[in-house]
Amino acid sequence: MTSQSPRDINASRDIESPVIAKPSETASNIANAQNAKKLFIKTYGCQMNVYDSERMADVLAPIGYMAVDTPDDADLVVLNTCHIREKAAEKVYSELGRVRKMKETKESEGRGEMTVAVAGCVAQAEGEEIMRRAPVVDMVLGPQTYHKLPEMIARVARKQGNVLETEFDTLEKFDELPTTRDPKGFAAFLTIQEGCDKFCTFCVVPYTRGAEVSRPVAQIVAEARDLAKKGVREITLIGQNVNAYMADAPDGSGEEWGLGDLIKHVAKIGGIERLRFTTSHPRDMDDDLIETIGNEPKLMPYLHLPIQAGSDKVLRDMNRGHTYEHYKNLIAKIRAARPDIALSGDFIVGFPGETDLDFEQTMKCVEEIGYGSSFSFKYSIRPGTPGASMPRQVPEEVKSERLKRLQDLLYTQQRNFNHSLIGRTLDILVEGIGRDGGQLFGRSPYLQGTHFDGSDDLIGQVVPVTITGAGRNSLTGDLA
Ligand code: 5AD
Ligand code: SF4
Fold first, then answer.
1. What digits encode the pLDDT tens for the residues 211-222?
2. Which of 47, 218, 226, 311 has the fewest Cβ atoms surrounding its Cβ within 10 A?
3. Which one of 10, 203, 344 would you pick to mutate in the ligand 1 pocket, going by the greatest count of ligand atoms within 8 A of its CB?
4. Domains identified in the chain and CATH numbers
5. 346: pLDDT confidence band, cut at 50, 70 and 90?
6. Which residues pair with 190 in a beta bridge?
7. Kind of pairing, strands 462-470 and 474-479?
8. CA nearest to 280, candidates 10, 24, 7
Protein backbone atom coordinates (compact mmCIF):
# COMPACT_ATOMS: atom_id res chain seq x y z
CA MET A 1 0.00 0.00 0.00
CA THR A 2 0.36 2.89 0.59
CA SER A 3 -0.75 4.45 3.09
CA GLN A 4 1.46 7.19 3.29
CA SER A 5 1.59 10.04 6.93
CA PRO A 6 1.23 13.98 8.46
CA ARG A 7 1.73 13.08 4.84
CA ASP A 8 1.61 9.12 5.22
CA ILE A 9 -0.71 7.24 2.61
CA ASN A 10 2.37 5.94 4.20
CA ALA A 11 1.88 7.28 7.51
CA SER A 12 4.10 9.85 8.80
CA ARG A 13 6.48 11.10 6.38
CA ASP A 14 7.57 14.18 8.12
CA ILE A 15 7.73 16.61 5.25
CA GLU A 16 8.98 20.03 6.24
CA SER A 17 7.02 22.91 4.79
CA PRO A 18 8.49 26.16 3.62
CA VAL A 19 7.49 29.29 5.48
CA ILE A 20 6.26 31.14 2.43
CA ALA A 21 4.63 29.58 -0.55
CA LYS A 22 2.40 31.00 -3.19
CA PRO A 23 -0.65 32.68 -1.66
CA SER A 24 -3.82 30.84 -2.49
CA GLU A 25 -5.81 32.91 -4.95
CA THR A 26 -9.25 31.67 -4.04
CA ALA A 27 -8.66 31.83 -0.31
CA SER A 28 -7.32 35.35 -0.50
CA ASN A 29 -10.31 36.49 -2.54
CA ILE A 30 -12.62 35.07 0.02
CA ALA A 31 -10.50 36.47 2.84
CA ASN A 32 -11.41 39.90 1.55
CA ALA A 33 -15.05 39.23 2.15
CA GLN A 34 -15.87 40.53 5.62
CA ASN A 35 -18.42 37.85 6.30
CA ALA A 36 -16.31 34.82 5.34
CA LYS A 37 -16.76 31.87 7.64
CA LYS A 38 -13.60 30.36 9.05
CA LEU A 39 -12.65 26.79 8.27
CA PHE A 40 -9.91 24.91 10.15
CA ILE A 41 -8.91 21.48 8.85
CA LYS A 42 -6.43 19.32 10.73
CA THR A 43 -5.00 16.52 8.62
CA TYR A 44 -3.60 13.26 9.95
CA GLY A 45 -2.13 10.35 8.04
CA CYS A 46 -1.33 9.91 4.40
CA GLN A 47 -1.00 12.03 1.26
CA MET A 48 -4.50 11.00 0.31
CA ASN A 49 -5.80 12.77 3.40
CA VAL A 50 -3.72 15.84 2.49
CA TYR A 51 -5.38 15.78 -0.94
CA ASP A 52 -8.84 15.20 0.54
CA SER A 53 -8.42 18.10 2.97
CA GLU A 54 -7.58 20.42 0.08
CA ARG A 55 -10.63 19.18 -1.80
CA MET A 56 -12.87 19.79 1.22
CA ALA A 57 -11.62 23.37 1.26
CA ASP A 58 -12.38 23.57 -2.51
CA VAL A 59 -15.95 22.34 -1.90
CA LEU A 60 -16.49 24.82 0.91
CA ALA A 61 -14.96 27.94 -0.70
CA PRO A 62 -18.00 28.66 -2.92
CA ILE A 63 -20.27 28.68 0.12
CA GLY A 64 -18.10 31.24 1.87
CA TYR A 65 -15.53 29.32 3.92
CA MET A 66 -11.99 30.59 4.18
CA ALA A 67 -9.20 28.33 5.48
CA VAL A 68 -7.52 29.55 8.69
CA ASP A 69 -4.44 28.30 10.56
CA THR A 70 -5.83 27.92 14.09
CA PRO A 71 -9.00 26.30 15.38
CA ASP A 72 -9.85 28.76 18.24
CA ASP A 73 -12.04 31.07 16.26
CA ALA A 74 -13.15 28.70 13.53
CA ASP A 75 -16.81 28.33 12.53
CA LEU A 76 -16.12 24.84 11.22
CA VAL A 77 -13.41 22.50 12.52
CA VAL A 78 -12.72 19.34 10.52
CA LEU A 79 -10.44 16.58 11.80
CA ASN A 80 -9.39 14.50 8.80
CA THR A 81 -8.33 11.32 10.51
CA CYS A 82 -6.15 8.23 10.01
CA HIS A 83 -6.95 4.69 11.16
CA ILE A 84 -3.83 2.87 9.95
CA ARG A 85 -2.35 2.20 13.41
CA GLU A 86 -3.87 2.33 16.87
CA LYS A 87 -1.87 5.42 17.86
CA ALA A 88 -3.13 7.39 14.87
CA ALA A 89 -6.74 6.51 15.65
CA GLU A 90 -6.40 7.41 19.35
CA LYS A 91 -5.22 10.91 18.52
CA VAL A 92 -8.72 11.79 17.33
CA TYR A 93 -10.30 11.44 20.74
CA SER A 94 -7.65 13.52 22.52
CA GLU A 95 -7.91 16.20 19.85
CA LEU A 96 -11.70 16.19 20.20
CA GLY A 97 -11.24 16.92 23.94
CA ARG A 98 -9.25 20.05 23.04
CA VAL A 99 -11.75 21.08 20.37
CA ARG A 100 -14.63 20.73 22.86
CA LYS A 101 -12.94 23.23 25.23
CA MET A 102 -12.37 25.69 22.37
CA LYS A 103 -15.96 25.38 21.26
CA GLU A 104 -17.23 26.00 24.81
CA THR A 105 -14.98 29.07 25.23
CA LYS A 106 -15.96 30.49 21.85
CA GLU A 107 -19.66 30.04 22.43
CA SER A 108 -19.58 31.27 26.07
CA GLU A 109 -17.77 34.43 24.96
CA GLY A 110 -20.49 35.10 22.40
CA ARG A 111 -18.13 34.65 19.41
CA GLY A 112 -20.60 32.44 17.57
CA GLU A 113 -21.04 28.72 17.14
CA MET A 114 -18.44 26.13 16.17
CA THR A 115 -19.44 23.12 14.09
CA VAL A 116 -17.22 20.07 14.56
CA ALA A 117 -16.73 17.39 11.91
CA VAL A 118 -14.73 14.17 11.91
CA ALA A 119 -13.72 13.00 8.43
CA GLY A 120 -11.33 10.37 7.07
CA CYS A 121 -10.72 6.75 7.91
CA VAL A 122 -11.58 6.82 11.64
CA ALA A 123 -14.91 8.37 10.64
CA GLN A 124 -15.49 5.52 8.20
CA ALA A 125 -14.48 2.81 10.67
CA GLU A 126 -15.89 4.13 13.93
CA GLY A 127 -18.60 6.62 12.94
CA GLU A 128 -21.28 5.54 15.41
CA GLU A 129 -18.77 5.20 18.21
CA ILE A 130 -17.41 8.70 17.64
CA MET A 131 -20.93 10.11 17.93
CA ARG A 132 -21.43 8.19 21.17
CA ARG A 133 -18.05 8.91 22.75
CA ALA A 134 -17.75 12.56 21.68
CA PRO A 135 -21.04 14.46 21.75
CA VAL A 136 -19.16 17.59 20.64
CA VAL A 137 -19.11 16.08 17.12
CA ASP A 138 -21.87 17.39 14.81
CA MET A 139 -20.86 15.54 11.65
CA VAL A 140 -19.10 12.31 10.79
CA LEU A 141 -18.19 11.87 7.14
CA GLY A 142 -16.37 9.01 5.46
CA PRO A 143 -13.74 9.56 2.74
CA GLN A 144 -16.19 9.09 -0.13
CA THR A 145 -18.69 11.74 1.00
CA TYR A 146 -16.81 15.07 0.95
CA HIS A 147 -18.78 16.42 -1.99
CA LYS A 148 -21.86 16.34 0.27
CA LEU A 149 -20.32 18.72 2.85
CA PRO A 150 -22.43 21.80 1.97
CA GLU A 151 -25.63 19.81 2.29
CA MET A 152 -24.46 18.25 5.56
CA ILE A 153 -23.56 21.66 6.99
CA ALA A 154 -27.02 22.91 6.06
CA ARG A 155 -28.58 19.97 7.88
CA VAL A 156 -26.56 20.71 11.02
CA ALA A 157 -27.48 24.41 10.78
CA ARG A 158 -31.17 23.50 10.58
CA LYS A 159 -30.57 21.61 13.85
CA GLN A 160 -31.75 18.38 12.29
CA GLY A 161 -29.51 16.48 14.66
CA ASN A 162 -26.09 14.98 14.08
CA VAL A 163 -25.16 13.88 10.59
CA LEU A 164 -23.43 10.60 9.71
CA GLU A 165 -22.42 9.90 6.09
CA THR A 166 -20.31 6.84 5.39
CA GLU A 167 -21.61 5.67 2.01
CA PHE A 168 -19.07 4.30 -0.48
CA ASP A 169 -19.30 5.83 -3.92
CA THR A 170 -15.85 6.89 -4.97
CA LEU A 171 -16.75 7.73 -8.55
CA GLU A 172 -19.70 9.85 -7.48
CA LYS A 173 -17.37 11.79 -5.19
CA PHE A 174 -14.96 12.55 -8.02
CA ASP A 175 -17.81 13.43 -10.40
CA GLU A 176 -19.25 15.87 -7.90
CA LEU A 177 -16.06 17.56 -6.64
CA PRO A 178 -15.29 20.93 -8.28
CA THR A 179 -13.11 20.55 -11.37
CA THR A 180 -10.82 23.37 -10.26
CA ARG A 181 -8.30 23.32 -7.47
CA ASP A 182 -6.82 25.92 -5.19
CA PRO A 183 -3.23 24.67 -4.88
CA LYS A 184 -1.16 25.82 -1.93
CA GLY A 185 2.21 25.82 -3.65
CA PHE A 186 4.16 24.50 -6.59
CA ALA A 187 3.93 20.78 -5.84
CA ALA A 188 0.52 19.13 -5.58
CA PHE A 189 -1.01 15.74 -4.99
CA LEU A 190 -3.58 14.42 -7.44
CA THR A 191 -5.63 11.33 -6.57
CA ILE A 192 -5.94 9.01 -9.56
CA GLN A 193 -7.00 5.84 -7.77
CA GLU A 194 -8.56 5.05 -4.45
CA GLY A 195 -9.15 1.93 -2.41
CA CYS A 196 -7.54 -1.46 -2.25
CA ASP A 197 -8.47 -5.04 -3.13
CA LYS A 198 -5.28 -6.61 -1.78
CA PHE A 199 -6.43 -7.29 1.79
CA CYS A 200 -3.04 -7.52 3.46
CA THR A 201 -3.91 -9.16 6.75
CA PHE A 202 -2.58 -6.26 8.87
CA CYS A 203 -4.30 -3.43 7.03
CA VAL A 204 -7.54 -1.49 7.49
CA VAL A 205 -7.45 0.32 4.16
CA PRO A 206 -9.65 -2.10 2.16
CA TYR A 207 -12.31 -1.57 4.83
CA THR A 208 -11.99 2.20 5.28
CA ARG A 209 -11.37 3.20 1.66
CA GLY A 210 -13.25 0.44 -0.12
CA ALA A 211 -12.48 -1.40 -3.36
CA GLU A 212 -9.95 -0.23 -5.97
CA VAL A 213 -11.45 2.45 -8.18
CA SER A 214 -9.59 4.41 -10.89
CA ARG A 215 -10.60 7.90 -12.02
CA PRO A 216 -11.21 8.48 -15.74
CA VAL A 217 -8.20 9.82 -17.68
CA ALA A 218 -10.06 12.95 -18.85
CA GLN A 219 -10.89 13.97 -15.29
CA ILE A 220 -7.28 13.55 -14.17
CA VAL A 221 -5.97 15.51 -17.15
CA ALA A 222 -8.45 18.35 -16.53
CA GLU A 223 -7.32 18.57 -12.91
CA ALA A 224 -3.62 18.44 -13.86
CA ARG A 225 -4.12 21.20 -16.46
CA ASP A 226 -5.87 23.37 -13.90
CA LEU A 227 -2.99 22.85 -11.46
CA ALA A 228 -0.43 23.71 -14.14
CA LYS A 229 -2.35 26.87 -15.02
CA LYS A 230 -2.16 27.90 -11.37
CA GLY A 231 1.61 27.55 -11.20
CA VAL A 232 2.02 23.96 -10.06
CA ARG A 233 5.24 22.48 -11.48
CA GLU A 234 5.26 19.06 -9.83
CA ILE A 235 2.40 16.59 -9.49
CA THR A 236 2.43 13.43 -7.42
CA LEU A 237 -0.18 11.01 -8.72
CA ILE A 238 -1.50 9.26 -5.64
CA GLY A 239 -3.53 6.17 -4.86
CA GLN A 240 -3.61 3.49 -2.19
CA ASN A 241 -2.49 1.12 -4.94
CA VAL A 242 -1.51 3.67 -7.51
CA ASN A 243 0.02 1.17 -9.92
CA ALA A 244 -3.22 -0.83 -10.00
CA TYR A 245 -4.53 2.14 -12.02
CA MET A 246 -6.60 0.94 -14.98
CA ALA A 247 -9.02 3.03 -17.05
CA ASP A 248 -10.41 3.34 -20.58
CA ALA A 249 -8.09 5.02 -23.07
CA PRO A 250 -9.41 8.55 -23.72
CA ASP A 251 -9.43 8.07 -27.54
CA GLY A 252 -12.43 5.73 -27.41
CA SER A 253 -10.32 2.88 -28.86
CA GLY A 254 -11.61 0.53 -26.22
CA GLU A 255 -8.05 -0.05 -24.96
CA GLU A 256 -7.24 0.05 -21.30
CA TRP A 257 -4.61 2.37 -19.90
CA GLY A 258 -2.38 1.47 -16.99
CA LEU A 259 -0.28 3.84 -14.91
CA GLY A 260 2.57 3.94 -17.45
CA ASP A 261 0.22 5.22 -20.19
CA LEU A 262 -1.29 7.78 -17.83
CA ILE A 263 2.13 9.11 -16.76
CA LYS A 264 3.27 9.52 -20.39
CA HIS A 265 0.03 11.40 -21.14
CA VAL A 266 0.13 13.73 -18.11
CA ALA A 267 3.82 14.44 -18.81
CA LYS A 268 2.75 16.19 -22.03
CA ILE A 269 0.85 18.90 -20.15
CA GLY A 270 2.63 22.24 -20.53
CA GLY A 271 4.01 23.66 -17.30
CA ILE A 272 4.27 20.31 -15.53
CA GLU A 273 8.00 19.75 -15.08
CA ARG A 274 8.10 16.89 -12.61
CA LEU A 275 5.97 13.86 -11.89
CA ARG A 276 5.92 11.28 -9.11
CA PHE A 277 3.56 8.49 -8.14
CA THR A 278 2.87 6.74 -4.87
CA THR A 279 2.20 4.19 -3.36
CA SER A 280 2.91 1.15 -5.49
CA HIS A 281 2.46 -2.53 -4.78
CA PRO A 282 5.12 -4.99 -6.00
CA ARG A 283 2.38 -7.15 -7.54
CA ASP A 284 1.22 -4.37 -9.87
CA MET A 285 4.63 -3.27 -11.17
CA ASP A 286 4.18 -4.18 -14.84
CA ASP A 287 6.75 -3.96 -17.66
CA ASP A 288 5.12 -0.93 -19.25
CA LEU A 289 5.44 0.99 -15.97
CA ILE A 290 9.08 -0.07 -15.60
CA GLU A 291 9.75 1.07 -19.16
CA THR A 292 8.08 4.41 -18.35
CA ILE A 293 10.26 4.77 -15.24
CA GLY A 294 13.26 4.24 -17.55
CA ASN A 295 12.19 6.59 -20.36
CA GLU A 296 10.04 9.41 -19.02
CA PRO A 297 12.40 12.25 -18.11
CA LYS A 298 9.76 14.16 -16.13
CA LEU A 299 9.35 11.23 -13.75
CA MET A 300 11.57 11.73 -10.69
CA PRO A 301 14.09 8.95 -9.95
CA TYR A 302 12.55 8.02 -6.63
CA LEU A 303 10.25 5.07 -6.07
CA HIS A 304 8.31 4.10 -2.97
CA LEU A 305 7.86 0.34 -3.21
CA PRO A 306 7.03 -1.23 0.16
CA ILE A 307 7.88 -4.85 0.91
CA GLN A 308 6.92 -4.81 4.63
CA ALA A 309 9.02 -7.85 5.58
CA GLY A 310 11.85 -9.98 4.17
CA SER A 311 10.71 -13.45 5.21
CA ASP A 312 8.63 -15.41 2.69
CA LYS A 313 6.67 -16.98 5.52
CA VAL A 314 5.73 -13.56 6.95
CA LEU A 315 4.97 -12.22 3.46
CA ARG A 316 2.62 -15.16 2.96
CA ASP A 317 0.92 -14.63 6.33
CA MET A 318 0.56 -10.95 5.47
CA ASN A 319 -1.13 -11.99 2.20
CA ARG A 320 1.26 -9.83 0.21
CA GLY A 321 1.02 -12.20 -2.75
CA HIS A 322 4.73 -12.29 -3.65
CA THR A 323 8.05 -13.57 -2.32
CA TYR A 324 11.26 -11.74 -1.45
CA GLU A 325 12.84 -13.18 -4.59
CA HIS A 326 10.09 -11.61 -6.73
CA TYR A 327 10.70 -8.23 -5.10
CA LYS A 328 14.47 -8.49 -5.51
CA ASN A 329 14.14 -9.31 -9.22
CA LEU A 330 11.72 -6.45 -9.68
CA ILE A 331 14.15 -4.00 -8.09
CA ALA A 332 16.94 -5.30 -10.34
CA LYS A 333 14.77 -4.66 -13.42
CA ILE A 334 13.82 -1.18 -12.23
CA ARG A 335 17.46 -0.31 -11.50
CA ALA A 336 18.50 -1.57 -14.91
CA ALA A 337 15.86 0.70 -16.48
CA ARG A 338 16.76 3.74 -14.35
CA PRO A 339 20.19 3.45 -12.74
CA ASP A 340 19.89 6.73 -10.77
CA ILE A 341 16.71 5.62 -9.00
CA ALA A 342 16.52 5.75 -5.20
CA LEU A 343 14.16 3.45 -3.37
CA SER A 344 12.00 3.95 -0.38
CA GLY A 345 10.03 1.32 1.50
CA ASP A 346 7.68 0.56 4.36
CA PHE A 347 8.48 -2.11 6.94
CA ILE A 348 6.47 -3.71 9.70
CA VAL A 349 8.21 -5.52 12.55
CA GLY A 350 6.53 -7.93 14.94
CA PHE A 351 3.79 -9.22 12.67
CA PRO A 352 2.13 -12.26 14.37
CA GLY A 353 4.38 -15.31 14.17
CA GLU A 354 7.51 -13.32 13.18
CA THR A 355 10.47 -15.19 14.72
CA ASP A 356 13.99 -13.86 15.29
CA LEU A 357 14.98 -15.68 12.14
CA ASP A 358 12.17 -14.08 10.13
CA PHE A 359 13.22 -10.67 11.40
CA GLU A 360 16.82 -11.34 10.32
CA GLN A 361 15.43 -11.84 6.80
CA THR A 362 14.04 -8.30 6.92
CA MET A 363 17.47 -7.00 7.97
CA LYS A 364 19.05 -9.00 5.13
CA CYS A 365 16.52 -7.57 2.66
CA VAL A 366 17.38 -4.01 3.71
CA GLU A 367 21.11 -4.74 3.41
CA GLU A 368 20.72 -6.32 -0.02
CA ILE A 369 18.31 -3.80 -1.52
CA GLY A 370 19.61 -0.55 0.02
CA TYR A 371 17.08 2.24 0.63
CA GLY A 372 17.42 5.99 0.22
CA SER A 373 14.64 6.54 2.75
CA SER A 374 12.07 4.43 4.52
CA PHE A 375 9.22 4.17 6.97
CA SER A 376 9.13 1.48 9.61
CA PHE A 377 6.51 0.57 12.15
CA LYS A 378 5.74 -1.86 14.94
CA TYR A 379 2.82 -4.08 13.99
CA SER A 380 -0.35 -2.57 15.44
CA ILE A 381 -3.39 -4.77 15.94
CA ARG A 382 -6.31 -3.39 13.96
CA PRO A 383 -9.73 -4.67 14.98
CA GLY A 384 -11.55 -6.50 12.19
CA THR A 385 -8.41 -7.42 10.21
CA PRO A 386 -7.29 -11.08 10.00
CA GLY A 387 -3.98 -10.25 11.73
CA ALA A 388 -5.82 -9.22 14.89
CA SER A 389 -6.96 -12.77 15.60
CA MET A 390 -3.78 -14.56 14.52
CA PRO A 391 -2.02 -16.63 17.17
CA ARG A 392 1.56 -15.92 18.29
CA GLN A 393 1.27 -12.16 18.64
CA VAL A 394 4.74 -10.73 19.27
CA PRO A 395 5.39 -9.09 22.67
CA GLU A 396 5.73 -5.30 22.66
CA GLU A 397 9.35 -5.36 24.00
CA VAL A 398 10.41 -7.65 21.16
CA LYS A 399 8.76 -5.36 18.60
CA SER A 400 10.58 -2.36 20.13
CA GLU A 401 13.98 -4.10 20.02
CA ARG A 402 13.46 -5.16 16.40
CA LEU A 403 12.28 -1.72 15.35
CA LYS A 404 15.34 -0.12 16.95
CA ARG A 405 17.73 -2.47 15.11
CA LEU A 406 15.92 -2.00 11.83
CA GLN A 407 15.79 1.78 12.13
CA ASP A 408 19.50 1.97 13.03
CA LEU A 409 20.22 0.26 9.72
CA LEU A 410 17.64 2.21 7.68
CA TYR A 411 18.75 5.59 9.06
CA THR A 412 22.39 4.75 8.38
CA GLN A 413 21.47 3.93 4.78
CA GLN A 414 19.50 7.17 4.52
CA ARG A 415 22.40 9.24 5.88
CA ASN A 416 24.84 7.49 3.56
CA PHE A 417 22.59 8.06 0.58
CA ASN A 418 22.23 11.76 1.40
CA HIS A 419 26.02 12.05 1.85
CA SER A 420 26.58 10.39 -1.52
CA LEU A 421 24.87 13.39 -3.12
CA ILE A 422 27.48 15.88 -1.86
CA GLY A 423 29.27 17.35 -4.86
CA ARG A 424 26.43 16.52 -7.24
CA THR A 425 24.27 19.19 -8.85
CA LEU A 426 20.57 18.44 -8.40
CA ASP A 427 17.47 20.11 -9.79
CA ILE A 428 15.60 21.68 -6.90
CA LEU A 429 11.98 22.82 -7.13
CA VAL A 430 11.98 26.00 -5.03
CA GLU A 431 8.90 25.98 -2.81
CA GLY A 432 9.48 29.02 -0.59
CA ILE A 433 11.65 30.79 1.94
CA GLY A 434 13.48 28.59 4.47
CA ARG A 435 12.75 28.85 8.15
CA ASP A 436 15.99 30.68 8.97
CA GLY A 437 15.16 33.52 6.59
CA GLY A 438 17.38 34.67 3.73
CA GLN A 439 17.50 31.10 2.49
CA LEU A 440 15.36 29.33 -0.05
CA PHE A 441 13.76 25.96 0.55
CA GLY A 442 13.02 23.39 -2.11
CA ARG A 443 12.89 19.70 -2.87
CA SER A 444 15.40 17.52 -4.63
CA PRO A 445 14.39 14.81 -7.11
CA TYR A 446 14.73 12.43 -4.13
CA LEU A 447 12.35 14.53 -2.00
CA GLN A 448 14.90 15.74 0.52
CA GLY A 449 14.20 19.27 1.73
CA THR A 450 17.09 21.41 0.45
CA HIS A 451 18.24 24.81 1.75
CA PHE A 452 20.38 27.26 -0.18
CA ASP A 453 20.90 31.02 -0.59
CA GLY A 454 19.12 32.72 -3.44
CA SER A 455 16.69 35.43 -4.37
CA ASP A 456 13.00 34.88 -3.80
CA ASP A 457 12.13 35.41 -7.47
CA LEU A 458 13.35 31.82 -7.92
CA ILE A 459 10.34 30.56 -5.94
CA GLY A 460 8.29 28.29 -8.14
CA GLN A 461 11.20 27.43 -10.47
CA VAL A 462 13.35 24.34 -10.84
CA VAL A 463 16.98 25.44 -10.35
CA PRO A 464 20.32 23.57 -10.29
CA VAL A 465 21.92 23.41 -6.83
CA THR A 466 25.29 21.87 -6.01
CA ILE A 467 24.97 19.90 -2.79
CA THR A 468 27.52 20.83 -0.10
CA GLY A 469 26.05 19.28 3.05
CA ALA A 470 23.75 16.46 4.08
CA GLY A 471 21.93 15.37 7.24
CA ARG A 472 19.53 12.48 7.75
CA ASN A 473 16.54 14.34 6.33
CA SER A 474 17.81 17.35 4.47
CA LEU A 475 20.48 18.80 2.21
CA THR A 476 22.22 22.15 1.89
CA GLY A 477 23.84 23.54 -1.22
CA ASP A 478 24.74 26.48 -3.46
CA LEU A 479 23.08 27.63 -6.65
CA ALA A 480 25.11 26.19 -9.50
N1 5AD B 1 0.55 -1.95 11.84
C2 5AD B 1 1.72 -1.34 11.53
N3 5AD B 1 1.94 -0.76 10.34
C4 5AD B 1 0.96 -0.79 9.43
N5 5AD B 1 0.87 -0.31 8.18
C6 5AD B 1 -0.34 -0.59 7.68
N7 5AD B 1 -1.07 -1.25 8.59
C8 5AD B 1 -0.28 -1.40 9.69
C9 5AD B 1 -0.46 -2.00 10.95
N10 5AD B 1 -1.60 -2.63 11.27
C11 5AD B 1 2.02 0.33 7.53
C12 5AD B 1 2.46 -0.43 6.28
C13 5AD B 1 1.94 0.42 5.19
C14 5AD B 1 2.09 1.79 5.81
C15 5AD B 1 1.32 2.86 5.22
O16 5AD B 1 1.64 1.62 7.12
O17 5AD B 1 3.87 -0.45 6.29
O18 5AD B 1 2.67 0.31 3.98
FE1 SF4 C 1 -1.46 -1.38 0.93
FE2 SF4 C 1 -1.95 -3.95 1.61
FE3 SF4 C 1 -3.16 -1.97 2.93
FE4 SF4 C 1 -3.84 -2.50 0.40
S5 SF4 C 1 -4.14 -3.85 2.15
S6 SF4 C 1 -3.53 -0.49 1.28
S7 SF4 C 1 -1.82 -3.12 -0.45
S8 SF4 C 1 -0.93 -2.36 2.87
1. 999 999 999 999
2. 218
3. 203
4. 18-167 (3.40.50.12160), 174-420 (3.80.30.20), 425-479 (2.40.50.140)
5. very high
6. 237
7. antiparallel
8. 10
